[in-house]
Every structure is written in structure tokens, then in C-alpha cells.
Amino acid sequence: MFTKAIMTTMLTLLLTTAGFAAESASLAPRSAPAVAASTPQSIAPARAQAVQALPEAAKTAMPAVPSPPAKVRPNRAITISMFMVIIGVTLGVVIWAAKRTTSAADFYAAGGGITGLQNGWAIAGDYMSAASFLGMSGLISLYGIDGFMYAVGPMFSFIAILLVVAEPCRNAGKFTLGDILSFRASPKPVRAVAALSTVTVSLFYLIAQMVGAGKLMQVLLDIPYRVSVIGVGILMVGYVAFGGMKATTWVQIIKASLLMTGTVVLAVLVMLKSGMNPIQFFTDIVGNQNIQDHVRMNVLKDALPKPGFDYGQRFMEPGLFLKNPLDQISLGIAWALGAAGLPHILMRFFTVPSAKEARKSIVIALFINSSFFFLINLIGFGAALYLSPQLISSVDKGGNMATLLLAQKLGGGAGSIGGDLFLAFICAVAFATILAVVSGLVLAASAAIAHDVYVNIIKDGKADQQTQVRVARITSLFVGIAAIIMGLAAEKENVVALVALAFAVAASGNFPAVMLSLFWKRFNTSGVISGLLVGTISALALVVISPVMTYPQKIADDARKIVTTLEQKQAEGVVLAEKDLKALDKARADFQKNDGGTSMVGLKAAIFPLKNPGIVSVPLGLLAAILGALLFRDKRAEDMFDEIEVRQITGLGISKASDH
Amino acid sequence: MAAKQYDWSKIAQNPKYLELKSRKRKFLFGWWLASSIYYFSLPILSGYAPALFKAKAIGVINLGYLFILSQFVMAFFVAIYYTKVANSEFDRLTDELVREFQ
């Protein structure tokens, strides 16, 4: 009864929001400054850097590009209908799943009834974000091979999960990170810390996704930021609160299939255009005048060509975007270990009945994920060749619109039916992608609060199934509301740091704790707690003093440079174009606003030189976990090692999620 | 939960279990380490030995691009090889052991 009532309310609310969105958007002026807002998800460091890499001076020197449109303009009617189809289908799934969600195991682990194949698609759907789909191809289209190198990290993430995390966790765990960590430690404090870490990681990631989603919808459909954040928020809460893991899984499977379809079609169209010949494709890229000009003027900033220097070939060589090798190694550590410590990914292993199925699902996810990143490379280079980097960066400085622009072009061009349809489809894919990722995160955070904190700490594990499910549903509602509020508040914030942080905390806190729990006899309560706390806090502390934060003083300094350059031009008697005058006004305002300002923690400039803290915080977290365990030995935890080890290796006594 | 109680320390001494454990450990951590070394050689070499990346291999395609592609091949290989070994060896040993104790 309870479920039905809330579901009806949600549906009504949702439809009203959608209606409002359509209405307010049609009222919104067409000339809304869409370019400023891009999609700052995990890839967004690209944007920050790209902005620096393209100072006004260089841009004015840009050669005339074949008629650049100011923004991507999807056909609203077609795109909104496609969104509605996705919402309709997924809500159908939720109604189906809600009827079948009666126990805690149903809610958190879909009753263990997901097959390896389904789970593989769902994991891929949980992991591939809109940031990769839109941002990574953009990065490749602007910086060539460096963008492709960036994609290797998220691809490689699955190796650690496959070899050392998935099967042992499936064998020894039940629903959450807390279940694994508290196995032989004293349950209450460990569950509390694990829940705290899970909620932190998931909320950081969630807020970044919500802000990205809001800005993306704003750019694509002129839907106000607030409306899209609330709309996405209502949908994700609806999926999770009613459908639990079953609905979340199917939303992720639907999303992954849509995303792969879109990606394969785009990549095939790119290859068809170059006669299915990869060598010819890359030869064309290297010989392309637009790409050569872009590399020379916008990236390397050589006003005059260096004699004999092959700027086209330079696009195929590293170092245009990723400049600091230490930063890359640090980021690599976060990718290699962080994904394996993400609570929403860990949780997915428990939806399959056995370790063998868990293995199968990771292998499938690895194949989907790797194919995806490989195809993104063709799409990115294709966008550079068939659209030109100048056009892509004129629409969005970080290149986040490259995939969408390419879809429009390959579908038949702006205004054509094919172009409109294909662009609308790709927008819908991005939308589905966001929904699937945020749902997984809400579920993970709710599970930590409802299962670890409420059931196991407050109720000592004594709560009947009905209560557990009800609490989980209510919790997900609150998590969703919290995410919506924080998403709204963070509209103007720099959310790049949040994603870096989520991965860094997962790699520095969760990952060492999980590994040592499963593989080290001496590990115990104090080890878990000190490892999680030190890993989390050091990652947090290093990120807030790192270059990914916003430093007003730096913005002011950059603005001053622009002011000086332009004023000098004026002094020389050059009449500035309207665009330059606007830039001058903006720079003056930026300077006024930001001069003397400090970052969130009161810094004028970054203290820690790297964008990702992994190279320091992972060893710290690991060391703290080991020292904590060694300092306070725990006989019981050591005695219980045989049990957890036998369980994780053999699967004896495995928690059957269907037992209830 | 699981109705059956196991004598965990007895299983932990079982020779078959010890064999399974050591084989799994060697294989899993060995391949994890090897693939990580290969993976981290990408940022390390691209940062500290860029000349290697620039050497042309096939037409305009250079060694760097091929090296990145090889990372994908490596991941596919590890996944397929592990599946093969796990299906034929680890799962068989595990089944034998589980049958003995169930």
C-alpha cells in the first residue's frame, strides 16, 4: 500500500517536472549562453586545462573555420520524445521490480538472481559515465593521442577487480563493504566507519554526476539547471526506492546496451567515411590542415610554423595534454585500485549466485568496457578529422560536445532528419547513462546507511525483512533528497575535485582495507579503522590543497594578462572587435571579483603539485592499515582468519542472497 | 543463514585446500603484478622516454599508439587466460574440496 501511494505521488511529481521543463524551456531565450556550461564530470580536468591552454590571444589568432555554429542544437521535440521513451521503459521496469522486492536480499542484491551475463552488462553500465562518452572523445579530438592514453586507466581498472577483488568478495561478503570489513573485526565501529566512507565516496561521486547532468541538459535542451537536477533526482530515487537492486540493474543494462549501440554506430560511420582503412584514416588526420593549425596555434602556440616541424604528426605524439608524468602515475594508481574500492561496484558482485558468475560478469564487463574505450578513440579522432578541433572547441572549450556534434554531422548534418534523429538518440544515450550511474550510487549509499548503520548497529542485526526493506526505501529517499539539495547548491562549484576525491578515497581507504581483510591474517578492527580514516583523510586533505581546486588569485592573474594584452593593443591604436571588447570587460570583472581571493581552504595557490593524490595517499592508507593492525593485536581476528580465507577461496558457506 | 557449520581450521589444514590456495595466490597476484607493471610502463615511458613513443611503426601510426592498443590486448589476454585457468583448474579443485566437506 505504502509503496503504491508513494509511487503514484512520484509519478505525478515527475510528470509535472517534465511538463514544467518543456514549458519553461520553450520560454527560455534561444540565445542562452550555452557554451559556458559544459559537462564537468570526471573528465572535466580537461576543461580547466583547456581553458588555460586557449588564452584569448591565441583564439583571436585562429584562422577562419568553416562556419562554426555557436552551440549544439538538438531537435527538441525528437529529443524530448526519446527521453520520454527512456523514462517510460525504465519506469515500467521499476513497477515490475517493485512487486518482486520483498526482502533485504531482494533490495540490496536482487535476490542473487542476476546472471553473470546480465551482471556484466550492469557493471559496465554502472561504470561507463557520460563523462567518458562525451569528455574522453572530446579530449582526443583536441589533444590527440593523450586523450586515448587517458582512456587506458578506466579500462585497466577491471584487472584488479577480476583477479583479486570480485570472487573473494562474493564468497566472503553479503551486501555491502561493511559486511566484508566487519567479518572478523568488531562489527559496530567497523561498520560505522565503512558506512561513513561509503556515503562519502558515493555522495561525492553523486554530486559530481548531478551537477554534470544539470549542466548537460541545460546545454542540450535549454532545460533550467534546477529542473534537470530535480528531475534526475526524482527519477533515481524512484528507481532505487521502489525497484531496489533489481530495477537499478535493469536500468544499467538498458543504459549499457544503448551506450554501446550509439558508440558502435558512431565508430562504424567514422570508419566507413575513411573507407574502413585505419592507416588511411590516420594518414588523413596527420595531413589535415585544421588539425595541424590547431596543434600549432592553439596547443603549442607557435605563431609561425617551425620549419620542418610536422604539426599533424605531433597530434599522434604524447605530451599535448598530459604534461606531468608524476601526475599521470598518480592518476593511474587511482584508476588501477580505486575502481576496485568503489562501494557501488563492490555491491554489484553480490547480485550473482556464485563466485564463478561474479568472475564471468567481470570478464564481460571488461570486454564491454575495453571495447567502449577503443571505439571512443575512433570517435575522438574522427571528430577531429571530420569536424575540426577549432569547431569543437568553439562549441565547448573542453571538447565535451565532440561526440554530439559528430553524431549530428554523420547523421546528415544539422537540420537534416538523419542528423536530428541521430543527435537526439545520442543525447538520449547520455541521459540514460547519467540515470544509470546515479541510481547505482544512491543504492550504495542507502545500503550503507540502512543495512550497516540501522540494521546492524542500531538494531543489532535483528530486524525483520519487511522493516529492513522499508528502512532501505526511506533511506534512499533521504539520500536522494540530500543529493538533490547538494547538487543544486553546487551549481557554480568546481566539482572536478569531487570525482578525483571519490576515486582517491576508494583507492587509499577502501581498497587496502578490503585486501588486507581478505588476505592478511593479522588484520583487525584497529587496522580497518586506522586504514580507512588515514586513507580518506589524507586523500581529502591532499585534494583540497591540489591544483584541481579553484584558486581565485589564479583566475585574477589570468584575467590581468588578458586585460594587459588587450589594453596594449588599444594603446597601439588597434580597434578591438566586439568579441575582444566583451572579453576585455569580462576579464576586468573577473579580475575585480577574484583578485586577492583564496580557495576554499584559504590558499592563494596549490601546495600539493599533483591533481590526484593517489601516489601519496594510497601508501599512507596502506601503511596506516598495517600499523594499526600491528599496534593493537586481536587474537579473535587472527583466529577467524582461517574462516574468512577458506570462505573466500572455496566459497563454502557462501551467503546465498536468496536465503530468507 | 547457512545451516551447516564447518570446521574452518580443519579445512584450512587440508592438503588439497593448501594446494588450491597456493596455486591461486601465485596465479592471481603474479598476473596482477605483471599486468600492473605493463600498465604503469605506459605513463612512465610516455613521460620519461617520449622518443620511443614517436618512432613511426606503420605509416603515420607510431609505437606509442600501438603501445596503447597493446594495453587493451593485454587486458583481453589476462581476462581470457584467467577464465580458462579458473574454469579448468581452480573450479575443479574447488569442487573436489567442497564435495569433501559438504
Class based on secondary structure composition and strand pairing of chain A: mainly alpha
What does the main sheet of chain A amount to? none
Rg calc of chain B: 21 Å
Shape of chain B: elongated
Describe the oligomeric state of these chains in a short phrase. heterodimer
Q: Number of helical segments of chain A? A: 29
Order of helices and strands of chain A, N to C?
HHHHHHHHHHHHHHHHHHHHHHHHHHHHH
SS summary, helix count of chain B: 4
Any key phrases for this structure?
heterodimer, A: 660 residues, mainly alpha, Sodium/glucose cotransporter, 29 helices, 73% helix, 0% strand, B: 102 residues, 4 helices, 5% strand
Task: Give a summary of the structure in a few sentences.
Chain A has helices at 2-27, 45-53, 56-60, 76-99, 104-109, 116-127, 130-143, 145-150, 152-172, 177-181, 187-221, 225-273, 278-287, 289-299, 311-314, 325-338, 343-346, 355-387, 389-395, 402-410, 417-458, 465-489, 496-519, 525-544, 552-571, 578-594, 614-631, 635-639, 641-650. Chain A has 660 residues and is mostly helical. Chain B has one domain (12-101).
List the helices and strands and how they pair.
The complex is a heterodimer of chains A (660) and B (102).
Chain A: H1 2-27, H2 45-53, H3 56-60, H4 76-99, H5 104-109, H6 116-127, H7 130-143, H8 145-150, H9 152-172, H10 177-181, H11 187-221, H12 225-273, H13 278-287, H14 289-299, H15 311-314, H16 325-338, H17 343-346, H18 355-387, H19 389-395, H20 402-410, H21 417-458, H22 465-489, H23 496-519, H24 525-544, H25 552-571, H26 578-594, H27 614-631, H28 635-639, H29 641-650
Helix pairs in contact in A: 1-12, 4-12, 4-21, 6-12, 6-18, 7-18, 9-16, 9-18, 9-29, 11-12, 11-21, 11-22, 11-23, 11-24, 12-18, 12-21, 12-22, 13-18, 16-23, 16-27, 18-19, 18-20, 20-21, 21-22, 23-24, 23-27, 24-27, 25-26
Chain B: H1 8-13, H2 15-48, H3 50-54, E1 56-58, E2 61-62, H4 63-101
Antiparallel strand pairs in B: 1-2
Helix pairs in contact in B: 2-4
